[in-house]
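Example record

One chain of 90 residues, shown exactly as stored in the release files.
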Amino acid sequence: MEEKLSMDKQGRIVLPSRIRKAMGMEEGGQLLARLDGSRIVLEPFSGDLGKSVDEWADLVRSLEVEVFAETSEESWKWMSREYAKRKLGL
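Predicted structure tokens for this chain:
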């Protein structure tokens, strides 16, 4: 979806209704404006940070992950001890 917008003397723009509807935005909604190189990015902003953090935490808790750890004794085997000593100046 793409729209051409105009800006008034005070720098105000109006988001077309079809964009607002597609984003689920209502009157009084807030946007976060971010400069990304030569682009201006507008994103819906919810002032309820606590709610967003709680939703994120619930999502993370619901993920099932498998713990993986490499033993340090095995990690040196990809290079010789002599090479490592030379690199370390020993």
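Notes: The chain has one domain: 17-88.
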